[in-house]
Amino acid sequence: MFLQKLQLKNFRNYSEASLNFSPGINVLLGQNAQGKTNLLESIYVLATARSHRTANDRELIRFGNSDADIKGLVHRRSDDLPLELELGKRGKKARVNHLEQAKLSQYIGQLNVILFSPEDLSLVKGSPTGRRRFIDMEFGQIAPRYLHDLTAYRDVLKQRNHYLKSLSMHQTNDRVYLDVLSEQLSLFGGSIIVQRQKFLTDLEKYAQELHLSITQGQEQLSFEYDSKLKDIKDRSEQELQQIMDTQLKTQYEKEIFQGTTLIGPHRDDIKFLINGKNVQTYGSQGQQRTTALSVKLAEIDVMKEQTGEYPLLLLDDVLSELDGQRQTHLLKTIQNKVQTFLTAPAMNDVARNLIKAPKIFTIEKGH
Ligand code: ATP
Ligand code: MG
């Protein structure tokens, strides 16, 4: 798939903009603070209905305005699909083919994107929150059921934590309701874990191949789903639901004391291993970055496998963060395959040699 056209109105520092893109590589050049990242962000928001940099949609609306609007024309299979996301004071409206969607989950997934920014290079050594977010955002785009379960899980989790707090403050002593909440949480929790495990197995297959090639056959990359729940390997969804429910119920006292839910997918993590050793603990900085690169690039193939089409790739300032060999690898992987939007202060030599026929945009003060 590719994005043919993008129109922005009062998005960040863009008052109005209309751009036609190449299905190949689009290069956005410009000095600092001109609006390069803002443009990538608008594409990301158009696809996922949320920003990668802020949870507060107000920040996306141009200073002094009350609404922002992002319109895109997506070419998907043999169709042209108009998408629109309107951000206003009272939330957002999402339209597919000019029809407003009642639920955002019906909207997300029409356009698939993978964003790679310098912060993603710290996927491996960064926080578990970042790794969970990575799975949730990337997998959520291509798996509606996952997105649904995740939303439901978060709702129950909020209620359960709230209830644990009232138990801890002795406002109530009704454990039956806690049982009900635990069962509901386990229902979605078990389902989320089984889907994450499957996603990681799919991702691992491609990441392993890419990583071997980047490291010239030296490093075998593997993943592990790392959970606070015990005994969850090779379990069916039903078994996982049961396991989570049982384990929740064995630690009520601890959870009531702390006033929060201590186990479940909201606390889980991914472990990356090179030749069997944990990259986070034992890997060099270079190995950690290469791992992040392999993982990100592998997602392109996973999305293709699951949706039948390649996603868009948004590369924010990453070339300058990678050495020549890794830049070459990245650019070779995407060549002629994936519509790419790449920001940089200027073209460097590797990019000049490897990117065939880029469409170049010079971004200046939101124009
Ligand atoms: P760099 O090369 O430093 O990464 P950039 O071109 O990627 O720069 P952006 O992150 O896109 O820069 O930001 C450009 C400008 O947008 C900033 O100066 C910022 O103040 C401005 N900006 C951010 N949010 C808004 C907003 N809601 N309304 C108006 N301007 C905004
Ligand atoms: Mg930027």
UniProtKB/TrEMBL annotation:
Pfam families: SMC_N (PF02463)
Alphabetically ordered keywords of this record: ATP-binding, Cytoplasm, DNA damage, DNA repair, DNA replication, DNA-binding, Nucleotide-binding, SOS response
Taxonomic lineage of the native organism: Bacteria, Bacillati, Bacillota, Bacilli, Lactobacillales
Keyword Cytoplasm on entry: yes
InterPro entries cross-referenced by the UniProt entry: DNA-binding_RecF (IPR001238), DNA-binding_RecF_CS (IPR018078), P-loop_NTPase (IPR027417), RecF/RecN/SMC_N (IPR003395), RecF_2 (IPR042174)
RecF/RecN/SMC N-terminal domain span: 2-344
Taxonomic source organism: Ligilactobacillus acidipiscis DSM 15836
HAMAP family the record matches: RecF
Chief localization: cytoplasm
Compartment(s): Cytoplasm
Signal peptide start and end residues: none
Function of the protein: The RecF protein is involved in DNA metabolism; it is required for DNA replication and normal SOS inducibility. RecF binds preferentially to single-stranded, linear DNA. It also seems to bind ATP.
Entry protein name: DNA replication and repair protein RecF
Tree of life domain: Bacteria
